[in-house]
Predict the structure.
Amino acid sequence: MRRSILLASALVTTLALSACGGTDDAGEAAEGNTEESAAEDTAADGGALTVWVDETRQAAVEAAAEDFEAETGAEVELVLKPFEDIRADFIAQVPTGEGPDVTVGAHDWLGELITNGVVAPVELGDKAAEFEEVAVQAFTADEQVYGLPYAIENIALIRNTELADSAPATWDDAIAAGKDAGTKFPFLIQSDGENGDPYTYYPFQTSFGAPVFEQNADGSYSPELAMGGENGEAYAQWLADQGEAGNLTIDTTYDIAVEAFANGESPFIVGGPWMLEQFSDLDLAIDPVPAPGDEPAQPFVGVQGFYVSAKSENALLANDFLVNYLSTEEAQTALFEAGGRPPALTAAADAASSDPIVGGFREVGADAVPMPSIPEMGSVWAFWGVTEAGIISGKAEPAEAWNKMISDIEGALDS
Amino acid sequence: MTDLQHVADARETSGDATPPPDERRRRAARRDESPAGRYGPGFLVKLALMAVIDAFGVYVVWSAWVAESWVILGAMVAMLAVANWVYFSRRTVPMKYVLPGLVFLFTFQIFTIAYTGWVAFTNYGDGHNSTKDDAITALLAQNERRVEGSPSLPLTVVTDGDDLGFAVVRPDGTTAVGDADDALAPVEATVTDGQVTAVDGWEVLGRQEILERQGEVTDLRVPVSDDPNDGSVRTQDARTGYTFKPTLVYDEAADTMTDTVTGTVYAPNDDGQFEAADGTTLQVGWRVFVGFDNFTTAFSDSRYAGPFFQVVVWTFVFAFASVATTFLLGMFLATVFNAPIRGRKLYRTLLILPYAIPGFVAPLLWSGLLNRSFGFVNQVLLGGAAIPWLTDPWLAKFSIIAVNLWLGFPYMFLICTGALQSLPTDVMEAAKIDGAGRLRTWRSVTMPLLLVSTTPLLISSFAFNFNNFALIYMLTGGGPRFDDASVPLGHTDILITMVYSVAGLDGSAPKNFGLASALSIVIFVIIATISAIAFKRTRSLEEIN
């Protein structure tokens, strides 16, 4: 019996040691710092870079990574993740050292990523001037740039040219044109039921002069609510009036609105380039969102880009990949073709704008404002949409509900 | 197998005792006699399995060593030692069956509970995401600024044997070289395509060598001049350098951060943040133990006082109503289909169908069906009525219980069917002989016997529904909101969805995992107490048997 234990443990140890040896090699090769393993494993010559991407961007990043691999000998490992998981996973995993070197992300995560210390600044240097101004601005916090932007997205008014032949100048024009068209809906705008959709409604709100936060001179936001007061109340009153008139309803969810527009049930829909796939057999024009108030209707701009982990052991490689390979016109165009969102690099955006649809969204985006990336925005979303939906459905008294929302948000920000 | 091994052992001992006639034959004899007892196919399979497990274990240990997570390392070593001892020892037969279960219990239950308990006493969450060292590194990185108007310098990484240095081409075309100790000084160098390719006294590093030492390269700061206020050159890609100046400096001895522009000194406080004398804090903090703070803040925020009471009441109502409705319907159907009816099997199969739909999908499906304007229920079944199934406070509560009834009755139906079929027939006959009617038999014999076997399941069902996060989250999201509350909570929120919102996990506030853990523990205590009391009460039922 004793001998059986000895024999077994000897066998097990051998096996384990060989397994250990195997992983040992792999691990060190990944770090690329032992001569031995580097000699054994040519792929690891230039080090290895882990990049988190989502499905829509995978192919384009892969293409850029191939060039990078060929020129530098580095290895780029793409990890496919659902876009909505990336933010939380990145924050949770970077401190453990298990996170990626680079991840794809949206600019409005920036505030949270910075407070959690998981994102490293990226020096774009002179390249910064080659990007659309709003794109770099969106990735800037406290004068420091934290990512490489690659796409800009914003909503606009999508018009079915068969049902309405010209762009409406004002909200009333749009409703009149919609009623003339004789379709089921004069105007379509999505709302997530009782949760509302303040993102899609935001251009209406800005036309009343009620932006969500005070904006600093450099375009960044300060955590001072600016949507209260008379202007905010005027917007709330407008929501209530339009809800009562039946022009706005909270029942048209995204799916319902998109399907109705695709079926030609309305000449207008407020939406972004991500909807276009469903409208492929319609003849479309992209116009600015018609303003119900006196000021221009400015939608939010969302910028997508790549972040570098604060704890990346391959920071040099990561920055090289972003600044010198993903910032090329070729790479940005490939990303545009994969995701359908106008590129952040001006040269690539100019080329992409030859398509009137892309150009139309870009033109509307030129007057748009970046979505606030400060962490305080989370508290705003929680109250904003529900209040708007309540006002539209006639459940709540407009001015009263709006002012309660302002004080609730302020309460949440103070706590 | 153990018996066989004993026999083999006995033989071996006797063989050893007798003097060997011939060394060779003895060995051959042993080879012949041992396979049955020791090296049979079973043993080899066991050996192979253990080898795989040990290899995996050693891999984990090694990974833990590299990642410096000593707890995992220690736990893994202990588990490996125990596993090897249990499976290669003969005295541990019962453990051989129990060990896998125990291991899973430890990794998936005990560890999770212990970790939750640990987090509950820290301020882990947004702004306190990692260690102090990480926070300091992040703060320093975030506050190193490019000197305004400084040029971008085409840069080459060079070495003088040990130390690294930078060779740069200045905008006027001159070249300079320097390292961490010596500021950039003009030097003669060969420049090709605007980049230094050779310089006297220094060796130019190739791309491979740079990548092997990339940590050193990105950490290197080469002063622009002898005056530290001019900043220093650093590079992020080993191709271009920029002049940077830190706006925040960490003093290791004093453990303070100093803003070089304003001169403000920040010292660490008890909350895991650097704090200045006037109370302003730097934005990146770190995890610290906060004692019972999470438990007290959970109950001291006055904004939650009103809604909290409503949420607790609804949680109990919901959990109780869910168990009661599903059990009554399930038991009723089970009794009905316990009698021989034509097509009984088909009905039974159909009744179990809702149980086959994943608990995540069904509520989503129902939220679509119950939509006020476009839902199937209103549009088709009710001929275009606009009933606010999910948006009226009372109807939403009703819908939730109804959907949970649809989801939950097949389970109760199954267990009641099983329990009914295993009821002893002699007791029934006895009741019949005593002249009891059907109803009386059911009330006095069937029902109590049924409860004996199903009560533990009812208690666990109560505990499950008390925390039925998926149903609420997917069906109503807690809505419709309380009109009079100042927090994002609604009429159908139960305790666990409230925790999700309070702790900011839904994105409505900065995330606070510490608070979430503390509140989960509170909920656990509530459920544990109720279950314990209920189980104690059920003992009285068992006495019927």
